[in-house]
UniProtKB/TrEMBL annotation:
The keyword DNA repair does not apply. Keywords: Methyltransferase, S-adenosyl-L-methionine, Transferase. Its EC number is 2.1.1.271. This is Cobalt-precorrin-4 C(11)-methyltransferase.
Length: 288
C-alpha cells in the first residue's frame, strides 16, 4: 500500500468512526469480504462498540443473520429488517461433535444438537442457492474456541469469509491493566480450556512449565481447574478471574492465589463463561 493510499485510509477511517461506520474505499477494505454468500463474523466480547467496522459492513450487507438471542438486543441497530435466527444457539456444549462419543443423557443431548446442525446446514444451503447472503455472528474471535468453526469445513465450497473479532482474552487483558507477557520468570502465554474428550493437552501437562496460562472456562467446574493447576504451580501463585470481559457495565475482576481461591471464591456465583489467569505477571498490579 502506497503512502498516499495509506494516508487516505486513515482519513476515511476517522470519518467512518465519526459518522457511524460508513463503508470504506476498496483500497482500505483489503480482501473482498462480499465475494461469498457465507460469513462467520466475530462481533467482539460484549458491548457493541467493540465490534469492528468490517463486521458492521458484513452484517449490513447480509440477508440472513444467525446469532444468539442476546445479540438481537446488543446489535439491534444493525439487525433491523434482517431475517434473524436464534434457534441454533446452545450448540456450545458439544461443538457439533459426533454423538457416538457420548453416553446416556449426554448422548441424547448431542443427538438433539446434531439435528440443529442439520437444520442449519439446510438453511444456509437454501439461502446460497437463492442468491442470499448469510452471516453467522459469534462472540469474541470465532477462531479461538469458537463453536462455529465447523461451518468453515461444512461450507468450504462456498468459500466462506471469516471476520476476525476482538476476543474476550483481549478485553480481559485490558481490564487487568498489566502486561500479560511481563512476568518475572516467563514471557510465554498458553490459552486453553477444560480437558475435553480425547484431547491429550491436559491442563496438568500444559502447566508443567509454570508459564502464564489463560483458561476459557465454558461450563467447566471452577474447583476442577484450581485442583489441576495446583499440581504444578505453587500455592502462592497469583490468579485472577475476569468476568464479563468487554461488558462495561458488568466487568469484574477477582484476585486470589491458587492456595486460597477455593475458600475465597464461591463457584456458584460465577457466570457461565469467565476467564482464569494464572501466573507471576499478576504480582505486578497497576498502581491505584
Amino acid at each position: 500500500m502506497t503512502q498516499s493510499i495509506q494516508s487516505a485510509c486513515y482519513f476515511l477511517l476517522s470519518i467512518a468512526i465519526s459518522i457511524g461506520g460508513q463503508p470504506l474505499s476498496p483500497e482500505c477494505q483489503g480482501a473482498d469480504v462480499f465475494s461469498t454468500p457465507f460469513h462467520l463474523v466475530g462481533v467482539g466480547p460484549g458491548d457493541a462498540d467493540l465490534m469492528t467496522l468490517r463486521a458492521a459492513r458484513v452484517i449490513e450487507n447480509a440477508d440472513i443473520i444467525i446469532c444468539r438471542k442476546n445479540h438481537s438486543e446488543t446489535f439491534r441497530d444493525y439487525l433491523q429488517g434482517k431475517e434473524v435466527h436464534h434457534e441454533f444457539s446452545g450448540m456450545i456444549p458439544f461443538y457439533s461433535r459426533d454423538p457416538s462419543l457420548y453416553e446416556g443423557e449426554e448422548r441424547k443431548r448431542a443427538e438433539q444438537y446434531q439435528a440443529k446442525r442439520l437444520k442449519l446446514i439446510h438453511l444456509v444451503r437454501g439461502a446460497a442457492k437463492a442468491g442470499r447472503t448469510v452471516a453467522v455472528l459469534d462472540n469474541g474471535d470465532p477462531m479461538i474456541f469458537g463453536p462455529s468453526t465447523w461451518m468453515l469445513e461444512e461450507f468450504a465450497d462456498l468459500k466462506p469469509q471469516v471476520v476476525p473479532g476482538l476476543s474476550s482474552f483481549n478485553a480481559a487483558n485490558a481490564a487487568l491493566g498489566t502486561g500479560i507477557t511481563s512476568g518475572g520468570r516467563t514471557k510465554s502465554v498458553t490459552l486453553t480450556a477444560g480437558d475435553w474428550i480425547k484431547t491429550e493437552d491436559t491442563i496438568e501437562k500444559l502447566s508443567v512449565h509454570r508459564n502464564t496460562m489463560v483458561l476459557f472456562t465454558m461450563r467447566a467446574e471452577f474447583q476442577d481447574f484450581i485442583e489441576k493447576l495446583s499440581i504444578n504451580y505453587p500455592a502462592e501463585t497469583p490468579i485472577a478471574i475476569v468476568q464479563q470481559a468487554g461488558h462495561a457495565a458488568g466487568e469484574k475482576i477477582i484476585r486470589s492465589t491458587l492456595g486460597s481461591a477455593l475458600e475465597e471464591v464461591a463457584s456458584d456465583d460465577l457466570p457461565f463463561e469467565y476467564l482464569i489467569y494464572v501466573g507471576d505477571f499478576l504480582a505486578r498490579q497497576p498502581k491505584q
